[in-house]
């Protein structure tokens, strides 16, 4: 299930809204919320638009839209597709309600805390992934979550990994793949020549001898 939700501005990590969690959840999730704030600090215009970050028994899923980051902390058993459908619903409503105010320079932290009402209402809908409504959402959502980048929190915080898009790496990988295909094709041809070339030359020579012998005999 969705344990907690935080919404922040991408440009500076300013928290805009969050779910009002009970004392037990606050105690259990304090460290993970600190990790969420560390993620906000790493975000920029080049960051992946959607990402899942593994941390202990939880996943921190985030989605970017119109300069805002929507992040939820979920149990690992909660379907990723449902988590991103949940974030998408929050993003649409938040954009309609506060989209024009997000870029104001005089905003205070949690300026839109009233959005918690919608967060709680939506979170209740998604509490049990096995309900018919949520099973329908899973089937209807065409989002391919296998293409969403997955990171490990330890790598992200302690080993200097970033959340930037992998475009340049993908381009390099594509060019290397094409080069590999061409090299493999050439090596296959060369291997075939080594394997059958001598035999083909012998057979061709034999046919030539037979042809000349039949012509001049």
Structural descriptors:
alpha+beta, 18% strand, 6-stranded mixed β-sheet, transmembrane helix, 6 strands, 53% helix, membrane, 217 residues, 6 helices
Write the layout of secondary structure elements.
Elements: E1 2-9, E2 15-18, H1 23-42, E3 50-55, E4 58-65, E5 68-75, H2 80-98, H3 116-125, H4 132-140, E6 149-152, H5 153-158, H6 167-216
Parallel strand pairs: 3-6
Antiparallel strand pairs: 1-2, 1-5, 3-4, 4-5
Helix pairs in contact: 2-3
Mean pLDDT: 79
Percent strand = 15-25%
Number of continuous helical runs: 6
From the alpha carbons, calculate the radius of gyration and give it in angstroms.
29 Å
- Counting DSSP E segments of at least 2 residues, the number of strands comes to 6
Q: Indicate the overall shape.
A: rod-shaped
What are the secondary-structure elements, in order, as H or E? EEHEEEHHHEHH
Strand numbers in spatial order across the main sheet: 2-1-5-4-3-6
End-to-end CA span: 92 Å
What about the largest sheet? 6 strands, mixed
């Amino acid at each position: 299930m969705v344990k907690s939700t935080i919404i922040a501005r991408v440009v500076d990590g300013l928290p805009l809204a969050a779910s009002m969690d009970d004392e037990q959840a606050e105690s259990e999730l304090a460290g993970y919320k600190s990790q969420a704030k560390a993620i906000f600090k790493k975000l920029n215009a080049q960051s992946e638009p959607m990402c899942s970050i593994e941390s202990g028994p939880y996943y921190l899923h985030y989605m970017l839209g119109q300069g805002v980051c929507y992040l939820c902390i979920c149990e690992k058993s909660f379907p990723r597709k449902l988590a991103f459908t949940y974030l998408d619903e929050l993003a649409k409503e938040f954009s309609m309600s506060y989209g024009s105010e997000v870029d104001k320079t005089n905003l205070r932290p949690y300026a839109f805390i009233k959005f918690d009402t919608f967060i709680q209402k939506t979170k209740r809908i998604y509490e049990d992934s096995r309900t018919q409504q949520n099973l329908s959402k899973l089937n209807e959502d065409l989002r391919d979550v296998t293409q969403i980048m997955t990171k490990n929190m330890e790598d992200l915080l302690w080993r200097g990994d970033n959340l930037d898009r992998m475009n340049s790496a993908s381009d390099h990988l594509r060019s290397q793949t094409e080069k590999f295909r061409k090299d493999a094709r050439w090596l296959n041809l060369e291997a075939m020549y080594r394997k059958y070339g001598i035999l083909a030359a012998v057979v061709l020579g034999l046919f030539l001898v037979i042809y000349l012998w039949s012509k001049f005999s």
